[in-house]
Amino acid sequence: MIRLENIHQTYPGPSGPVQALRGIDLHVPQGQIFGVIGRSGAGKSSLVRTINLLNRPTSGRVRVAGQDLTAMPDAQLRQARQGIGMVFQHFNLLASRTVYDNVALPLELAGMDAAAIRTRVMPLLDLVGLAALRERYPAQISGGQKQRVGIARALANRPQVLLSDEATSALDPETTRAILALLQQVNREFGLTVVLITHQMQVIKQIAQQVAVIDAGRIVEQGAVLEVFTRPQHATTRSLLDEVTPQALPESVLARLRSQLQGLPAGEACVLRIAFAGDAVADQPLLSELVRRFGVDLSVVHGQMDEIQGQPYGALALLLRGAPSSLGEAVAYLRGAGVSVQEVSDV
Ligand SMILES: Nc1ncnc2c1ncn2[C@@H]1O[C@H](COP(=O)(O)OP(=O)(O)OP(=O)(O)O)[C@@H](O)[C@H]1O
Ligand SMILES: [Mg+2]
Fold first, then answer.
1. pTM recorded for the entire structure
2. Which of 99, 130, 280, 337 is most buried by its number of CB atoms within 10 A?
3. Cα(217) to centroid of ligand 1, in Å?
4. What is d(CA 59, CA 131) in angstroms, rounded to the nearest whole number?
5. Nearest 5°: CA angle at 297, between 292 and 303?
6. Interval between CA 337 and ligand 1 midpoint (Å)
7. Ligand 2 center to 165 CA (angstroms)
8. Ligand nearest to the CA of 24
């Protein structure tokens, strides 16, 4: 649906050019909720704004729905942009217009008459739950309600693509969940392709199907959310994941482990961090199998279980005790069962 090919974006800066995007290749399949995550300054806004050419990239090609936007004359580009809605972190509503008139604005700009606008806007206000507040002004509604207006406005032209640049960053966690649920609903009901920019893994976890990690203007990792959460490859991904699944053990747990390990002969104990995802793994009695098959002793020293897209997902820290050969076999068994296993060496 969306293809970015070798996108570079360079801005002029006081101390020389700033290379915000350095060769981005990205494919967002139709109908997906595709997350792009990165730290502040990584290039996320630059990236998402190239998709509708709000920023024209310095070089590279942007294709949306089979059309090359970068090669279009202005009039055709304006037309193509109607197929791409966008929501913003700070909502960007017009303070002098009511809720209704904010949602109606893109339709007025497209030259639609008042009656047609009304039949388009009213169902959208119902969809986002704001029909009763339609005569209020932006200053008279909450942040979450403002973002609902932003979403309704973005949908007014019936786009195929919805771009969201940190749409929930200014909202509290509960309102964030509600707005994300609304984005998920429009993705399902209208088959919209959603590109979701965020700096929070929590947001990715709640609704994205695929995720790309951007760091210093480059995509450093991408894949299915479950896969990336379970087997992060890049240091930036691991550090961003820390927010939802701490990658390191808390100091109190490490201290307790240290004192337990002190009394044990070298090689007869190890600490493992295991991460797993999917029914196949969660449904098997893996840990009791370890004890039965390899005669190791096992304690769970830390961990959490969660769910992504209805799939179980978790990370546990285990202290294993047993003969060195049994420990090796136990680790191999876990890996064979599709569990990601890391030995914790900094105990
Ligand atoms: N119009 C501009 N002129 C000059 N430099 C810019 C411009 N826009 C962005 N930059 C620079 O490009 C880099 C990427 O910025 P961008 O806004 O894309 O990052 P971001 O990932 O969206 O950050 P944030 O999470 O803070 O919104 C930064 O170094 C930024 O300072
Ligand atoms: Mg930004």
1. 0.88
2. 99
3. 10
4. 43
5. 105
6. 43
7. 7
8. 1
